[in-house]
Amino acid sequence: MRSIVVKIGSSSVTRATGPDPVVLTGALDAALNARSLGWSAVLVSSGAVASGSAYLARTTELASSARLAAAVGQPFLMDIYRSVSDVSGRHVCQILMSESDLRSPQAMSSACAVLEECQAAGIIPIVNGNDVTDLRGSDNDGIAVGLAVASGADRLLLLTDVPGVHDGTAGPATHLTDLPSGAIRAVPTGRPGKGRGGMRSKLRAAELAAYNGIETHIAGARQPGVITACVKGEPVGTRIPPARGRFPAEDRWISGIAAGHGSIVINRLAEDSIRSGASLFASGIKKVEGNFSGGDVIEVVTPAGRLVARGVSKVSAPLMSLIRAMQTDEIAIVLTAILDKFLQSSAPDHEGFAADGDEPGRPALRLPLVKALELIESHGYELTRRLALEIINLFPAATVEAMLGARDLEGHRHLRARYSRLSSDLSFIDRQRLVVY
Questions:
Q1: What own/partner pairs with CB < 8 Å and gap ≥ 24 does 130-135 have?
Q2: What CA–CA distance (Å, rounded) separates 124 from 284?
Q3: Which of 117, 229, 318, 326 shows the smallest number of beta carbons within 10 Å?
Q4: Radius of gyration over every alpha carbon of the chain, rounded to an integer in angstroms
Q5: No. of H helices and E strands in the chain?
Q6: Of 295, 284, 304, 292, which is closest to residue 263 (Cα–Cα)?
């Protein structure tokens, strides 16, 4: 049996008075009927916050949080789905997913196991993000593509309140029929609607799906028979075709399931390097975006925005921003300066490390290095401490030696030399956990 993941946005499932039963009933009816066409369907249904907010506005004068609105609104959504399924004699179930689940391979594996049980039992799963526990609100587009990749779905349908991706013309609103994955990031997007994501979020989900061998459609939720038409392979909305085949199961966590926490822009030489199987070094990184930590999944993109790869970063965004586009000897100066400031803050009698540019006969420092050193001086204690601890974890032996060993100029030169040698082997993304598209 083939499978489709259908995500319905908040703007589509709710009206001013609460959930729209017409849209919800039509979606569930189509999901139930899909089995007769040889397909199983998963519904990712937004709208709990909007539904709860509408109800609370009618029934209380007290201001309510989005968390409370979600807690109140979720039963309203399920009541409608349950009433439709009862008429058909079929069953539905509810699965709530938090953003933390998109960071946990074990949690996503458990969710997929439940989806398999639902398919075998003929139960339609209704999935929603857990807005009660997610501080920033749930990303149902991310949940939808994560489930599609993890479960090996054949198709992803993202339903919204517009008929497709706008073609960018100034005239009457028309939409693109087909959109190649490589052109997705060039599409201008706003953020209308009631949900967290908007069209930008849907395009990012469609891009990940395409690079994981899944065909995606972005279409209007109120188009009659849209889900059935998509299952039948009829044209609906904007189609984003697969950009490649599926990755092996062991690569899918990084390739499309895990939530991305930022991105790095690389130059052409670096792209050629990682495509050939080599590592990514600081000299190839042009820009760092996001606030990720070491161990987070990040995206690797070209200056034009084309997605090249996804992988697990070895360092944090603040540290990577300081040493990007630098040579190993410059990286050593930056690392030493961070450690020096930390030691001075922790031990006021610390003598301080001399910078290479301050020594007689040394060439002047390049402007990027000068700016990095100025930025380090402006850092507060907490950020300096985090960066210093990160350096200690990266190079424990060399750093401990500096902290416990000689503090004279020769010792400082020795530390920079060791950092320079160690940095020459520092790949900023774990090569064993890098998926190249």
A1: 130/70, 130/96, 130/97, 130/98, 131/48, 131/49, 131/66, 131/67, 131/69, 131/70, 132/67, 132/70, 132/71, 133/98, 133/100, 134/98, 134/99
A2: 47
A3: 117
A4: 26
A5: 16, 14
A6: 292
Three-state secondary-structure class, residue 210:
helix
pLDDT tens digit sequence for 68-105: 999 999 998 899 899 888 888 889 999 999 988 988 89
Residue 264 and residue 166 in one domain: no
Burial environment of residue 136 by CB neighbours within 10 A (0 to 12, 13 to 18, 19 or more): exposed
What's the CA gap between 67 and 225, in Å, rounded? 33
Task: Let me know if 101 is exposed, middle or buried by CB neighbors in 10 A (0-12, 13-18, 19+).
Answer: buried
CATH no. for residue 323? 2.30.130.10
> Quick count: other Cβ atoms within 10 Å of Cβ 250?
8
Q: And the tokens for 303? A: 């200056």
Domain of 116, in residue numbers? 2-254
- Tens-digit pLDDT profile for residues 207-221: 999 999 999 999 999
DSSP secondary structure code for residue 255 in this structure: I
Both tokens of 48, joined, read 């709990």
Residue type, 75: P
**Does one domain contain both 357 and 282?**
yes
Q: Are residues 63 and 165 in the same domain?
A: yes
What percent of the chain is predicted at pLDDT more than 70?
91
Report the candidate in 346, 348, 332 with the shortest Cα–Cα distance to residue 399: 332
What is the value of pTM for the model shown? 0.87
Burial class for 166, CB neighbours closer than 10 Å (0-12, 13-18, 19+) = middle
188 and 278 co-located in one domain: no
| Encoded tokens for 265 | 């822009």
- Last residue of some domain: 254, 274, 290? 254
Q: pLDDT per residue over 326-349, tens digit each?
A: 999 999 999 999 998 998 887 666
| Distance of alpha carbon 338 from alpha carbon 61, whole angstroms | 53
Asked if residue 182 lies in contact with residue 244, where contact means CB atoms within 8 angstroms, the answer is no
Longest dimension (CA), the chain: 86
Q: Give the pLDDT score at 76.
A: 87
Q: How far, in Å, CA of 197 to CA of 162, rounded?
A: 14
